[in-house]
Amino acid sequence: MTVEEEVHAAFAAGAPERLADLGGADFLRGREVDLARTSWMPDILGLALAELSAGEPDPAVEDFVVACAAAPVGRKDVPASDYKDAMQALAATALPEELAERCQAVYVRRVADRQDHEVARWVALGAALQIALMHPDLRHALIGVLVRLKVDANPPEFLRRAAKIVGVAHSHWPDSSLAAALDRLTHDTDARDEALFELGMVSLRAGLDADAPGTVDRCFEKARGYFDASLMAREHRPDAFAYSVVLSMLTALRRGDPAEELRQHAAVVQREITVAHVWAPPVKPTWG
Hints:
Elements: H1 3-12, H2 25-28, H3 32-36, H4 41-54, H5 59-69, H6 80-91, H7 97-112, H8 118-134, H9 139-146, H10 156-172, H11 176-185, H12 192-209, H13 213-233, H14 238-255, H15 259-279
């Protein structure tokens, strides 16, 4: 009986509620990699993650978690959708520091490997960000990969998702090299609107942090330029449009423009927000 067949038989006998229902850590021990490659990987990982939350984990449980992060993705391997679901669950789990470091090393390696499956790479990129947010000491390797992203050597969809990740990373750990990475991403047609939007957020935050009125105005104007450029790059960007109009309102307030003009700006923002809520799909992370 193969590992796949054994796991299938175990689950067919009744959906296990705990890893103990499958035999505990001994069920995993010595075959963590093989189990991570089965079609039941997300289900077993869910049980393993619950085990992590229960107390001191067995090394076999931690080894299995790392094996899941490193599992090959593809038509003959773990389906991309299964890997995505499993890694989102893993990244949302509070991991012990050492295990988080091991998983982060796997994710960063996958992101840097341009031969890896595209979906696995952008899922790993999002998961690496989640781990870095929960374990800030692990951000350095992620930032190192982000600032070295090459526009001409990566698929367009990966670059688009990467632009959002770079922007979020910059909001937590401002760094000129991350802003430079966003600037490079504007040269990719598919990633351009996202990179421009995130550059707008960079300038907006700079303006909010500034003290001198002149600096504030320059930063806000620069941010509005990025948001407008994002709209030019991809027509349906209600977020970019809203930020652009709000910044116009702030400028108008500082100039002392008539109240009627401000009301007109506010009406435009309200209309765009309403349209976005009506037509937009449920909000999900860009990496999801």
